[in-house]
Amino acid sequence: MRIVDICEVTKPISSPIRNAYIDFSKMTASLVAVVTDVVKDGRRVVGYGFNSNGRYGQGGLIRERFRDRILEADPASLMNDAGDNLDAHKIWAAIMQNEKPGGHGERSVAVGTIDMAVWDAISKIEEKPLFRMLAERKGVEANPRVFVYAAGGYYYPGKDNSALRNEMRGYLERGYTVVKMKIGGASIDEDQRRIEAVLAEIRDEAQLAVDANGRFDLETALAYAKMLRQYPLFWYEEIGDPLDYQLQAAMAEFYPGSMATGENLFSHQDARNLIRYGGMRPDRDWLQFDCALSYGLVEYLRTLDMLDQLGWSPSRCIPHGGHQMSLNIAAGLSLGGNESYPDLFQPYGGFPDGVKVEDGHIIMPELPGIGFEGKSDLIAVMRDLVE
Ligand SMILES: [Mg+2]
Q1: N or C: which end of the chain has fewer CB within 10 A?
Q2: Which domains does the chain have, with CATH numbers?
Q3: Is 219 annotated as a binding residue?
Q4: What confidence tens digit (pLDDT) does each residue in 262-310 have?
């Protein structure tokens, strides 16, 4: 058994939306296929992966550096001890040979994308849904019912508060119980009017989370905290620069409600620094590390171990990104849920066909691998790459 090829293509996932920091007019994503020589039911086993939205495609790093490290490794060195499947941890080690520590800029995105495809292949070879395989290996019970929330509320040319309300109404009609909107891309007064418009629309049918996308300096962060704390928000997300742990720690004095951050921390070491120095509170705050941006599930397992050692439950993790990889991790390893973007970043985001949100949760279908084969628009694009 061996990996015979790794293919990458960089695809546009552009849209006219913007948050407080970036627009998505030139956004791209890498799509990766890990091709094995294993055949199941007459079809070659191919694992697929892609990087989460918000960071660009990583074709250069994948094609010029990481692909060859896997293909040039002794195939036996990438197998598990039983010799009946690939080993994601050994493949990860092969990818990361001759890489210095620290500086987790874009390398972590490239590795996370390949890692997703590796786990897809491994669970397909085992003929199990990834979430069941993860739960079995950990010795825990899988829970196929996963909390999801609707991330939207972007700034958009010509979008007024009635369009924002309609957008949120649409999420409620689709079964969501928590919705999220962007803040920090307008004046604080205008953002307050936007928040009040949404709260008037959703009333007690749902809760609202707000996301500043790392935009605020301390002074602005505090001004917003004082404005926001009068509302019953689900969380106040990514307030300041993702690496400014002192700013994050200062917020706890001024904002008694839940806060969330972590989508732009790309290693378990950075995640550990957030827990050590960021003042995050394990009884109410949320962690949003996204494996598809941060060296993949092999690294995410290290992050979960670190959280356990520092007294955090995995149920405080609700990853960024809205992809099926994190749905599997949530269902298999007892995370608190997953982000979802009902109308954005297609065909990569979202759920397998026929999966519906009910009372803010989805039920994972029993598909081998990550479940991409159950999403017809996505698997069509994936199979175009190699099959
Ligand atoms: Mg965010």
Answers
A1: C
A2: 3-127 (3.30.390.10), 136-384 (3.20.20.120)
A3: no
A4: 999 999 999 999 999 999 999 999 999 999 999 999 999 999 999 999 9
